[in-house]
Every structure is written in structure tokens, then in C-alpha cells.
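queue> holo job accepted (manganese (II) ion)
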Amino acid sequence: MTVTAALRLDPARLRARLEGFGRIGALPGGGVCRLALTDADRAGRDHLVAEMQALGLTVTIDRIGNITGTRQGREDGPPVMIGSHIDSVATGGLYDGTLGVVAGLEIAEALNDADLTTRRPLAIAAFTNEEGARFAPDMMGSGVHQGALDLGAMLAVRGIDGAVLGDELARIGHSGPAPCPGPTPAAYLELHIEQGPVLEREGLDIAAVTGVQGISWTEMTIAGQSNHAGTTPMGLRRDAGLAAARITLAARALAQTFGPPLVATVGVLELSPGLTNVIPETARLTVDLRHTDADTLTRARAQLLAEAEVAAAEEGCALSTRSLADFPPVAFDPALVARIETAARARGLRTGRMPSGAGHDAQMFAPNCPTAMVFVPSQAGLSHNIAEHTEPAQLAAGAQVLADVALDLLEGTP
Ligand code: GLV
Ligand code: MN
Ligand code: MN
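queue> job finished
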């Protein structure tokens, strides 16, 4: 054991910080709504900055609003970064993203308690708009930080409520001066809840995450003709809603035809004018497709687009499409994945390996520096749901594994 592996975390403090964030943007019945760059997100961000300052971290905010708190090392040079996000979907739980950030804060505080100065600096980061729920694409702040997404293009993105991202960033006072892309760290680590059922089903405490599957988001807009619901014969309709319904069914059929791990979701379906006695003139829907293999994902998307064209044409409608997110699958650093697995086993934890079904900020760092993630179980596999839950002992175990690996990296060579 190295001296740093003995770092003692305080699970109650970790939990209290998580609950503290859970009160910001709290929803009736539990969970949070901290959609990116809303007032609730601003409150979360201000709280985070205050927490970082209280721990003596040097806080910087960059031009896309990523917040980084840095703890000096004995040597200069790139830090070991622990990151995640504090924005949420509109029906979010307490853990998605926030756990990774508060685990970083807990490690910084435990280092302070132990009066330890590590060889490398430690950077704790909260990335802007990981969720992509208000502004597409997801993983936006980390994508800009690592040069995978263009800063100017992202600042110009219009959200689901019509707001422009750059305007919102300025409005909430989180458009900082630090340049983007930002410096690549020596290594990047992220603790996250699994957000699925695998760990619980297999009776595991920890997963060393091997990579993240590819993500493709497409917005489809269908233009038909509104007309009277009572007088227009069925054969004379150009019903945009009907075409959208056919595309929704085609997405499910696509997933069944390709088989796992392809997943397909229509998460937005809007009809206009949206009145009982009016045939829909326009429909807007989004399709989220994911697969671990890039070529298969490309083929699946192409097939769905072809089927959508047919569904629209057969209804006399016009289809237009727009890509909202297109991220390839990534593999994490095998040596770092193995270090996570070894650290978890050394703590006596039941440990496995798995790819991530959800997108994460870590995937933006993986091409540029040694990167890996730690997963802890999600009760009943629920996430993007206010009932999202992970037991305190599981949170503590995940944070401890993160700390063990982080401190090894902070003292040694990544
Ligand atoms: C991001 O959180 C995603 O996986 O949708
Ligand atoms: Mn997340
Ligand atoms: Mn999420």
C-alpha cells in the first residue's frame, strides 16, 4: 500500500454534500430539475464555486462555463482530473453527475484533513450541459474542453425553450475567461452511478467501466397539412402525426431487428397545432440510437432514416432531419481500467467490468489522456427518474475506489 491509499474519506460528509445539491432545484416528491443554464443550474454552480473556495481550491470558469477547482501539487504540470456534471434532466435524481463532482470535493477535503500535498495537482471539474436535455448535444462542456465540439457553434445553440446557450451562460454569470479547448489533464477519472440494472442484477458493488457506446441523436420534422378532423376523408389526409407514429414504431422494430446492444428511443414527440379536431400539420420527434459498434450504429441510423422517408412520403408529408448529437463509441485506457478493478478488489468489493450505456464527460477525454470510470449500482436500474437511488455504503465504496486510484495517479505516473 502506498501512503496515499490510506486516505480516509468521510462517507457522511459525502452524503451531506450530495443532499445539499439535492435541495437546489428540488422537485416535489424527490429528485431535481437543474436543466443546464437555468436559474436552478446557476444556484447549483454558485454553490459549487463556494464549496470549492471553502476547500481552498483555485476556481476557474472557462468560456463554455465549465467550472474547475484546482488543488496545488508539489510539482507543476498537468493535474489528475476528477470530473462529472451538476446539470440534470428535467426529472433528474440526486446522483447522476453530482456524485462524481462531490466525490472529487470529498477527496480534496480528505487531502486537506490529512495535510497532504500530492505530487501532481488535483483538478475537480463540473462540465456544462452534460445532459443535453435543454441544449443539444449532450457532453457539451467536456466536448468543447477537449476540442471535439466547436466553442462558437455551441454558444450559438438554441435550446428547447428558444434560448441561445451563450446568452444564458452570460445571463447566469458563468461565462468565464478561461480558454477552450482547455488543457488536457495527465489523467481523467469519473465516478458515476451505473444508471442501469446490471450491477444490481449481478450482485456487484463496483464496475470498472471499459468504455462508452456510440450515441446518435436525430431530430425529425414532418410537414403535412392541417385540416378538419370531421370532414377530411381518411384517404385524403396528409397527417404528420401518423407519419411520426410510424417512425416511432419503426425505431422499436429497428432495435428488435438489429438486436442488443442497439437501443432506440423516441423521447420527444410534438404535434402541431395539437388540437383534438385538427389533423396535425407538423410533427417533431427525436430519435436516440446507441450501439457499441460505430459501423452498426451508422447502418442502423441510415436504415431508420430510409424508413422515415417512406413513412412520410406514403402520408404525403415532407421529412427533414437534423443531427443533434453524433458521438462514436470510445474505449477507456485498459491499464487504468485494470487499476480500478485491482483497487476495488483490494477493498474487498465485488467487482466486474462493463461498458457504459449512458453518455459521460469521460468519453470526451478518452481520446486524449488515460481515462476511466467507476460505476456504483443504481437501485432497480432507475435513472433520469426522481426515484434514482444508490445506498450510502455503495456511494462510499465507489468514492473510496476513486480516491485510491486518483491518489495513486497523483503520486505516481499515469
Ligand atoms: C447523457 O447523460 C445520456 O446518456 O443521455
Ligand atoms: Mn451523468
Ligand atoms: Mn444523465
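queue> The longest strand covers residues 214-223.
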